[in-house]
Amino acid sequence: MSTIRWTETNTPRSAHWHSESATPPPRRVIGADDRMKADTAYRLACEGTGLLWRGDFHGARRLLQAMSRRIDRKPPRRGDSPAESFHLHRRARGHRARVLGRLLVLLEDDYRLNLRRAPDVRRACIEAYGPQSEPMAVSLTELLGVIGAHQWRTKGVEVPALRARIHPHYGVFSPVRGEYVDLVAHAPLPPPAGPRAGRRTAFDLGTGTGVLAAVLARRGVDHVVATDISPRALACAEENVRRLCLTGRVDVMGPGLFPDGRADLVVCNPPWIPARPTSAVEQGVYDPDGSMLRGFLTALTAHLEPGGEGWLILSDLAEHLGLRTRGELLAGIEAAGLHVVGRIDTRPRHPRAMDAADPLHAARAAEVTSLWRLAAGRRPASAVTGSEPAPAPPPDEDGSASARSTASPAGTSSSA
Ligand SMILES: C[S@@+](CC[C@H](N)C(=O)[O-])C[C@H]1O[C@@H](n2cnc3c(N)ncnc32)[C@H](O)[C@@H]1O
């Protein structure tokens, strides 16, 4: 663990530094409070100086907003190609995160924030960081993410396909964009064919909150094994399975990708952007070289019962951004000895897809999320080649089929 050092009333002080995105500590740290002008704070943060806040908590939030407005004065330019626009967009987001991340707060050994008008963040911090024994400095932006994640964990995200709420944990992919959940809720299930015929089994790889495993169990799959590489996701999925009274029907295992054995259905919703995540929170969306997608395709046949299907849920945003081609995806499927049984498409309904000012608007507006039904072996002559109609969205509680709330839970990931 690294350390930050600063001087306060002529006394040298130090504290452990914590960053979920593995950002190194600022080399120079000074105290700051409500007397500091936003222009000064912005300049110092741009130069790399950490500002350890000692004033009013709400004053710190206002300063963060003022610094953010100064960053927005210079929006990233659009690139000459979608891939270049994406690259510039990521660079701008990285710059914003670095500058804003230099406003720091000190958490006491019990996660108390010793600032005027500070909220009680102890529960939120224990949930995100675990039990603590020493004071530590974190960026205010990270702490706000931790607080937001606690609120979403407490309140939950409504999942119409489950007629229940899913409670995401900090750093776990949240099903707030529910279109892909509806795909899994409506695609035709393959018939059970394993040694215990009549008993349908499924794997949910990269289960996150456990939402798809829960949907499959509620659809009548007798036994689902859910895995993830992230310990936070495993704990989160366990909790959701328990809340939904699905213990015994859904077993959460990991960390890892495939469990042992075979299943009638293997579902996988991998990160869909082949780019480097900048924090643990982004690991649900970004996978630098598409390793989870590749791992799923390569090992699928060995884990399918005869007649079983693999369901790959994948947005084509990476294709519109020039980061992957459709040909590469199809070649990966073929190279793994699989064929496409069918495909069900849906269009995202989140507000960013409609935001014409977004530098990635063209790609986002064209985005389609598909459920690819894959089976082992060569394509039989009768196999479906085109896409099937998208399933009707399930009605909301008032009976209408409206778009759902798409605000992204802070401290969880749901979009690129
Ligand atoms: C797009 S999220 C999907 C989460 C969940 N299945 C859902 O649909 O809401 C991708 C998930 O895959 C997990 N993941 C990423 N790489 C993985 C790997 N190599 N093995 C297992 N899980 C992985 C992430 O932690 C994340 O929870």
Structural write-up:
With 416 residues, the protein is of the alpha/beta class. It is built from 12 helices and 16 strands. The protein has helices at 38-47, 57-72, 82-100, 122-129, 140-155, 179-186, 211-218, 231-243, 291-300, 317-320, 326-335, 361-366; strands spanning 2-8, 11-17, 28-32, 49-53, 103-107, 136-139, 157-159, 164-166, 201-205, 223-227, 250-253, 263-268, 304-315, 338-346, 369-376, 387-388. The longest helix is centred in the first third of the chain and has 19 residues, at 82-100. The radius of gyration is 23 Å and the shape is globular. The protein starts with a strand and ends in a 28-residue tail after the last strand. Bound molecules: S-adenosylmethionine (SAM).
Protein traits:
Rossmann fold, binds S-adenosylmethionine, 416 residues, 2 domains, alpha/beta, 12 helices, single chain, six-stranded mixed sheet
Question: How would you concisely characterize the structure shown here?
Answer:
The protein has helices at residues 38-47, 57-72, 82-100, 122-129, 140-155, 179-186, 211-218, 231-243, 291-300, 317-320, 326-335, 361-366; strands spanning 2-8, 11-17, 28-32, 49-53, 103-107, 136-139, 157-159, 164-166, 201-205, 223-227, 250-253, 263-268, 304-315, 338-346, 369-376, 387-388. With 416 residues, the protein is of the alpha/beta class. S-adenosylmethionine binds at residues 173, 175, 206-209, 211-212, 227-230, 233, 257, 269-271, 283-284, 287, 292, 295.
Mean pLDDT: 89
**Tally of domains:** 2
H/I helix tally: 12
Record field, number of beta strands: 16
CATH fold topology of the largest domain: Rossmann fold
Radius of gyration, in Å, reads 23 Å
| Distance separating the two termini | 30 Å
CATH H-tier superfamily of the largest domain? Vaccinia Virus protein VP39
